[in-house]
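seq:
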Amino acid sequence: MEQIYIDPTIYTTKPVDSRLSKEMAVYDLLEKLDIPYNRVDHGVTATIEDCHDVDKLLGITICKNLFLCNSQKTDFYLLMMPGDKKFKTKELSAQIQSSRLSFAPAEYMEKYLDITPGSVSIIGLMNDTDRKVKLLIDEDVIKEDYLGCHPCINTSSLKVKTKDIIEKFLKHTGHVPRYVQLIGE
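struct:
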């Protein structure tokens, strides 16, 4: 497995170099909401495995973020769960009473969250102003003091207080999380 490049510097401010506007909008919103963060820049992290060295540097366990939908593609869900847990569709479907869950097509991810595959993150909810995406959070995620997420692009990772995401960020976006308990075995 090829090692991704990781800038070893941990930043606490937004980048000064040229970035995508959707990434810069994240830093502007976090600043506006008075949510401090640590940021690490790195090569493209396409999988949860790619994030392990970033996790170590930030001192966190990055969340696995899955963008799901029902078979009719009328209900969309963002599931946050610990990165080391296995996702079992049947287990989640039973808890939320939605049969036939699957990974949502990329076009819906871009339409509702303005993010592309590999960059899925709770931060994308800032772009879901019509609240079309329901947020599901595994209870083990909120037991952690910090969570790791991408700023709508998978070439940077953030360490943010879980409490700030729940109390400040989600209050701002208007998304009310539904907590689920996943065994993942």
